[in-house]
Amino acid sequence: MFETLPHPKPDAILAQMAPFKVDTRPDKMNLGVGVYMNDKGETIILDSVKEAERRLLEQETTKTYVGLAGDVAYNEAMKEIVFGDAAPAGRVYGLQAPGGSGSLRVLAELMARMRPNAKVWVSTPTWPNHYALLKTGNIEIAEYPYFDPETCSVDFDAMTAKLRTLGSDDVVILHGCCHNPTGANLSPAQWDEVAEIAVETGFLPFFDIAYQGFGDGLEEDAYGVRKFASTVKEMLVAVSCSKNFGIYRDRVGCAFVMGGTEETATLANENIQNIARGMYSMPPDHGASVVRIIWQDPELRQQWMDELKTMCTRMTSLRNLLAESFRKQGGGDRFDFVAVHRGMFSLLGLTPEQVDKLRQDHAIYMIGDSRVNIAGMQEQNIDRFVAAVLEVTQG
Ligand SMILES: Cc1ncc(COP(=O)(O)O)c(C=O)c1O
């Protein structure tokens, strides 16, 4: 029977990992993969995580199931991290879920239960896996304008013009911060405006926040989610701890529902637990316990926040060096946007042919749409990278 199966389309992000591995050129650069790397190109385990794991090993007394909602203390910790003081009392429930992806999937199923014919709007472009994770039942996926490839910044007028046409059968996916793949983000004033549009039109905001702390800081990056939490009645929020805690393979995330009243919030909470039961039953717990232990201990929390800041500062400083190098090497101000973008990624606005040429002639690997992972660079190879980009774009 298996012969009847179609060959799935290869994942653009995962597909470029294999050729990089077998490339023997010593100066090859991997800017494709979406994980944080330090200045040695390593994805290390944070010291705060190692310490929390040590404590967990000592303290853990059982491996029994954690329950459908997961660990309530973990969900509370996540609520504090993401919502701060902005969560309306009794109206927000969290569900420990397998990564940001698992959270997105649970909430997509909830959306399909509430609005079987909903239209889900994603930004152009968006993280490609959104299409697979959000597609369920009759749900239609549509795109709202977001990125202006001319300026490499948000086309806010086009975005808001589209959002103003939506209504209560529409669900809008909003990247909470550090937009993937573009790196172009909304300012606080722009978040305020989008929140007003949500109130006026009644569309359901569905946040995906996977890089909190990688942009301008833990608090600053939560501005959008918190603004919406204090402005709209209902919303969904999918959170990933993969990046900011560096626990990618432990699969740690949280799916939040915010209801208009305590009763409807409770109803939504019952439903996400029921959805999880039919999908994977109970969530994995190791990574979630690590996050809880870190957040509950003031010293460990501080250590984690310092480590997060180090990662964030490294990316911002690489961005500044990149923009400077482009100017120094004759690229003018065309690439200044790299210093304005935030998070791990930037979309450089190169053609697929230019991306191919970078791989073939310079052993520089990025995603076909010209998304680069800034954390994949090292200070000492910035000038080489910039020279290569200028060669393929000007030559
Ligand atoms: C925008 C966005 N959302 C969600 C995720 C999900 O992350 P994970 O499932 O690994 O926690 C990612 C990961 O790359 C992402 O980039």
* Percentage of residues in DSSP E strands: 5-15%
In CATH, the topology of the largest domain is named Aspartate Aminotransferase, domain 2
Strand order of the largest sheet: 2-10-9-8-7-3-4
What are the segments in which pLDDT stays under 50 over at least 5 consecutive residues? Answer: none
Helix count equals 15
> What structural class do helix, strand and pairing data support?
alpha/beta
Largest sheet: 7 strands, mixed
Written account of the structure:
By secondary structure, the chain is an alpha/beta fold. The chain folds into two domains: 10-43 and 309-394, Aspartate Aminotransferase, domain 1 (Alpha-Beta Complex), CATH 3.90.1150.10; 65-296, Type I PLP-dependent aspartate aminotransferase-like (Major domain) (Aspartate Aminotransferase, domain 2, 3-Layer(aba) Sandwich), CATH 3.40.640. The protein has helices at 12-15, 17-22, 47-59, 72-83, 99-114, 129-134, 156-163, 188-201, 223-229, 262-279, 286-296, 298-328, 337-340, 352-362, 382-394, and strands at residues 29-30, 92-97, 119-124, 140-145, 147-148, 153-154, 170-175, 204-209, 235-240, 253-258, 345-347, 364-365, 371-373. Strands 2-10-9-8-7-3-4 form a seven-stranded mixed sheet, sandwiched between helices. A two-stranded parallel sheet has the order 1-12. The longest helix has 31 residues, at 298-328. The protein starts with 11 loop residues before the first helix and ends with a helix. The model has no long low-confidence stretch (mean pLDDT 96). Bound molecules: pyridoxal-5'-phosphate. The site of pyridoxal-5'-phosphate has 13 residues, from helix 5.
